[in-house]
Structure formats: structure tokens, C-alpha cells
Amino acid sequence: MTAASTPRPGKVAARRVGARQEALAGYALVAVPMLLFLVLNIGSILYAAFISVWRWNIRTGPQQFLGLDNYVKALNDPIFQSAVTNTVYYTVIWVPLTMALGLFLAVIVNQKIRGKTFFRGAFYFPSIASSAAISTIWIFILNPFGLFNEVRGALGLNPLFSLLGYDANQDWLGDYHTAMNGVIILNAWTTSGTFMIFYLASLQAIPHEVYEAAAIDGAGAWDTFRRVTFPLLRPGHFFVATVGIIGGLQLFDQAVQIGNVDGAPANSLMTLVLYLYNAAFKRVQYGYAAAIGVVLFVIIFSATLIQRRIFEGREPTTA
Amino acid sequence: MRYRFLTLSFAVMFLAAACGGGTSSGAPSTGGTGSNAPAGSESAFDPASISGSVTLGQWASSPQEVQALTGAVAGFSAAYPNIKVTQTTITGDYRAAMVTKFGASDPPDLFYINAEYAPEWMSQGYLLSLDDYIDRQGFDISKFFPDYLSIFQQDGTTYGLPKDGNTIAMAVNTDLVPTPPTTMDELVQVATSLKGKPGLKAPMCLNPSLDRGLAFVYAQGGSLLTDDGSASAIDSAASKTAVQWYMDLFKNGLGQTNTQLGDGWCGEALGKGDVAIAFEGGWLKGAMDAFPKIKWQFAEMPTGTSGKKVTINYTAAYGIGNDSKNKDQAWVLMQYLTGPEGMAKWTSGGIAVPSRSDVAVPTGFEIIVKGADYAKPGSGFMPGYPDVLKAFGDAFLKQVTDKKYDAGPVVDATKAAITSALAAQ
Q: How far apart, in whole angstroms, are the C-alpha atoms of residue B151 and residue B167?
């Protein structure tokens, strides 16, 4: 990939003449999306930060300057605290789980097996189905009298579950102890297809020669995966983890569909974005909602920076 | 190039700051009211003299609702041919969609306001005071049930007129409960006798929150607020006893939540025969059409230790935005739809029950309308009530889920929420 763009010595002088024009054209083309980005993204972020230091009426604007009061209020607000805890818990469990699942599926469909196109399609399907439809099906499956409880009863697994404290008609999504895990499993299932596609692209970028060399050295399948495939997938890991963490910290729709806007049952599905929505549209406290938005921005931004630092140090290529 | 980008980004920052500054300099510090009163406010207002157009914003809980409202609007168009009505159904989260419209200074001319968020909308200055129109036209508001109207009034000003109402009643499966209980003691007896009945998942479907629990708190002489509304009363002896009584229904296996029963709501639980008793409003009637096998009837809420009949009501109103474009036309439509003729047309659609005492009761809703005489508001009666509702519901559900059944933490959490809601006023 890098070989194609290396300039040959004889062409350098000719290139220098056109380079300026080319650069100008490039910047001109970039300017339009850049302007939109600055106004719509950076502008909104700055405006939100401005709103967050006021008591703000959406119809008439600022009412009272509060300084950092909205932030202090957030830090002392028990529902905000549980929103942070829930969101972080979700992300910490869901991202590695979905990455593992996505990688596993990608390795399977990357084999030379019959019908691999079918499997790729089948594994990817939950990702393109509407989240509302999938969530509704999930609610039916985990209903106290639903498929999951019926099947485990029929398989005679109930004694095992009762050891863990769950009775035969456990209300998985209505019990505040288990609802979030229900959402994690649902989203791990539906998103693993997307992660599979990302990993598949990375897997196919690994040159064949490496595998041949490993085979000549006598590496078995597991050793090849652990010592060759897995480390060479580092750019893939970085990309998938970044996308996953950003998405995980913004959990909203499944939480609303399975619980409700209040983060039911008992705040166990209250996420940061959902709480922001509550502050803005339910309590009409726009300054407070903006402060929550800024906090969410800081959390996502720092998570991404930390992650970048972790992966950057040992990255084999800049791709 | 780098400098150019820096300049550009600074320009954007200034732009953002300027926008903010501009808004702040021109904005009044509180939601204005009187300033938007129509010109010539002393003169009498004759609805028949008004012409033009008006937009009507509504939610649509069902196709029947749209049909019923279209019927009422047709009646208006016949009575006021000079005003053209455009109905717009707001889909999705009505409250959120409307709040963004208020923010954009572009609300529909006339729109629904649910009791739940009426206090916030009034104090945020979204709504136009109706006092001027009411006075100038001499519109009689005394026929509205007072506990419906009071929700849309703040500091003596009326911001909305109730378009309809509903009260919570007891719905019983008549095969299993031929004689509905009239007191709460009888209710417990009947439920106990139904316990373990084959085919029945539980005797009652119970809502683990104040949405129904409040009726039982009132029935036992308890309350959320002191009489003057200035302090919490959920920690009074009567309230605590009432919350524990409601909790004990779960503890003794007399009731379960709709999710424990595996149903979407308690009406579905009654319709599917999972329970024999549920507590719902007039909306249950239409929903039960889907379950023709179940024989059922409404009965008045059983009386508690207070000995008085009591239940809770839910209502919604029509309101006009401070920024609505066609205020006069909106008022004309509002006084028709909330007047005797328009409300009779609307409530004949079988969706809702009249909020006025001078409109005939649609068949099958007698118990629901009877309740309006003695019902107390089930929402919208205090600022920040959604937070109180949530605090009670979350704490209550935790007690039920963990099988602890202790009213103490529920009362404490609710009291804390009431105190902070009243302090935020």
C-alpha cells in the first residue's frame, strides 16, 4: 500500500509545480465540510458549554447566571451518579464482550468453508434490523412467561437458576438487578455482526506470507491465532474499541425501549444520554441538561484519548 | 494554512458567543404573560366575528382518537365557517416535540397539554394566559369539574381549559367477582378468596407507583402534601399506614405488577384473564373490546379507613402558546371544543369522558364520570411531580423486587423528592 505513493526521484521537480495548485484545490474541497463541522459540531459543543452555566429557558434564553452550579448539582445528584455508574458498567462489559464475539464470528467466516457468504449475511442480519423490533422481540423472549424461561424449565435447568436466586418466572427485564445485563446481552448479539465486518476487513489485510511462515515454523491453529493473527489485528482492535466505547457511552434507544424514559426498572437502565433527555424535555432544565452533555463529552473524549495512548505505543503500522 | 484555520475557528467561536449574547440581551428574565394580550382588551370578544385560519396540534393515542377529534372539528367548521382548521398530529414523544417547538417560537396555535407537565409549561412561560379572553367573551368556566380546571391554573391565572378527563375506577371480572367489593377490607377478602384459583396468575394487577397507589393513600386519609401544599405529608402516620397497606397486597400475594404477570399493562392482564381485578380509567373500555370472552364491569373505588369516596383523576387541556401566531382564532376553536357542544361531539367518540358537568355522559362511562365529583388530581397538582412519582415508584419497585415489602424507605425517598421539588419552586 505504501509502495504506490512513494515518489520516484525524476518526477519530484514536476510535482513541485503542480503541488501548490493541488493543495489549494484540496483545501477548497475540504473547506465546505470543515465549515459545517465547525459550525454544527464544534459550535454546538461551545454553545452547550455556554448554556451550561445558566438557568436557561428554551423560549426566552438565559435567566440567571449560575457559574458551575449545574455541575455541582450533577455531582451531588443520585440519579446522575447512577446514570454514570450504569453507563460505565454497560461500556466496560459490553465492549469487550462484543469485540470477542465479533472477532470469533469474523475468524469463522474468514475460513474457506462452504456457504460462508450465507453465514456472513446471517451474522450481520441483527445489526441491520430495526432496534425497536429487536428490542420488542427481546422483551417477549425474556418475559417471565416467555421463551427463555420456558426453555430453561423444559431443559431442567431451573434448579441451577434457583441456586443463583432466580425463580422459574424471573422477570429478567423488570428486575432492577438483571435488566442492564439483559440489555448488554441483547446489544452484544445485535452489534457483534457489525464488529465482525470490521474485523473481517482487518483479517483480510493480513498477508498470506505471514501465515505460511508460521506454518513452516510448525505453529498450530491456536498458536497462529494467538501469536500471529491477534497481534496483527491491532489497528482493527483500536478501531473497533473506539467505535464501541463511543457507542456504548451513548446508550439510549434500547434502554428506552426496554425500560422507559424514566430508566425503569428503578433507574437500572438510566444512562447518561437518557438522563440528559430527561433533564431537557421532562424537567425543562436546559442549563442542567447542557452541563450533563458537557460531562458526557469530557468522559467520551478522555476515554478515547486514553485508549489512543494505549494502542499508539505499540502500533506496528500507522494504518 | 494553519493560521487560516485558526482564524476560521475563532470566527465560529465568536459567532456562537454572539448568538448567545444576542439572545441574552433581548430576553426577559421571566416568562412574560400580559405583554401578549391582544389589542383592545377592554372590548367584548365575539367569536363569530373572527375569521382566518388556525393550526391544531394533538397527539394521537389511537386512530379512534383522530377520528373523534376530526368529528368535533367538523362541528366547529359548521358553526364557524370563517375559520379554517388544520389538524397536525405530533407523533413520537409529544412533550419533547412540543418543547422544541416552544424553543423555536413556533408552537401550533392550539394544542393539547397533559396535566403531567402543565405546571412546568405554565411556569416556563410557554402558555398564554386565557383570562383576558374568558373575561371579554364572558365564557363560563364554572361548569368544569374544579379538580380538572385547577391543574391548568397558576397564581389565579388560567392557562388551559380541560378538554376531557378520566378517573381511576375498579374493574372486575364479573365471572370471578360477581359482587364488587365496596370497602378496602372487602377488597382484601375477595382477593384472598381468589388466591391460587386455577388459571389466575394473581387476584389483582397492581401498579407499583403513585399512578394508582395515590388513590389508596387518599382513601386512608393520607396525602402527599399538607393541605396548604407547602410541605410533605407522605410521612404522616396515615400516609405511612396506607403505603404499607398497598405494599402488603404484594407481600400477601394478592397482587402483582403487570411485568411480573408478563403483560404490557393491567388492562391486558384483566383481558387475558391473568387477574380478576385491576384499577384503570375510561381508556380500559375500548381496550377490552379486544378481549370479548372476558365479562367485566367498572365499579367505584372501594372506600378506605377515611370512609369517604375518593379516587384520582387524569386530565388534559387545550392551551395557546405565548408565541402562537393566530391567538384569536385559537381561542374561538378552544371555546368551541371545551364548550358543551364541542365536548359532547368529542366525548361521543368513546375515547374520553367529559370534563364538564353539563355534558351528557357517554354510555358505559357512568362510573368514571361519577368519580369526577370526588376525585383528587392524580398528576399536575404540584411542581416537579414527575420527580416525586419517580422517587416513589423506584423505591417501591425495589422493595417488591427484593421481597422486603417495607414502606419505610419508600416514604423516605418520596419525602426527600417532595421537599426538593417544593424547594426548587
A: 15
A252 lies within 8 A of chain B by CB:
no
Instruction: Kindly report, residue by residue over B281-333, the tens digit of the pLDDT.
Output: 988 988 898 999 999 999 999 999 989 999 999 999 999 999 999 999 999 99
Where exactly are the structural domains of chain A? 3-51, 78-312
By CA distance, what is B403's nearest residue in A?
Answer: A175
- For B184-202, what is each residue's pLDDT tens digit? 999 999 999 999 999 999 9
| Partner residue facing B1 (CB), from A27, A64, A281 | A27
- B38 to chain A, any CB pair closer than 8 A? The answer is no
> Which among B9, B24, B96 has CB closest to A61?
B24
The C-alpha angle with vertex A187 and arms to A181 and A189, in degrees rounded to 5, equals 105
Full-model pTM: 0.85
Domains of chain B, each with CATH number or no CATH: 46-166+314-369 (3.40.190.10), 167-313+376-423 (3.40.190.10)
Give the residue from chain A lying closest to B126, CA to CA. A59
Confirm if B383 and B120 have CB atoms less than 8 A apart. Answer: yes
> Are A283 and B384 within 8 A, CB to CB?
yes
As for the ipTM of the complex, it is 0.82
- Contact assessment for residue A65 and residue A159, using Cβ atoms and an 8 Å cutoff: no
Contacts with B257 from chain A: Cβ below 8 Å: 174
User: Considering only CA atoms, which of B160, B156, B147, B157 is closest in space to residue B357?
Assistant: B147
| Domain covering A78-312 assigned CATH 1.10.3720.10 in the classification | yes
Q: Which residues contact B105 (CB under 8 A, 6 or more apart)?
A: A59, B323
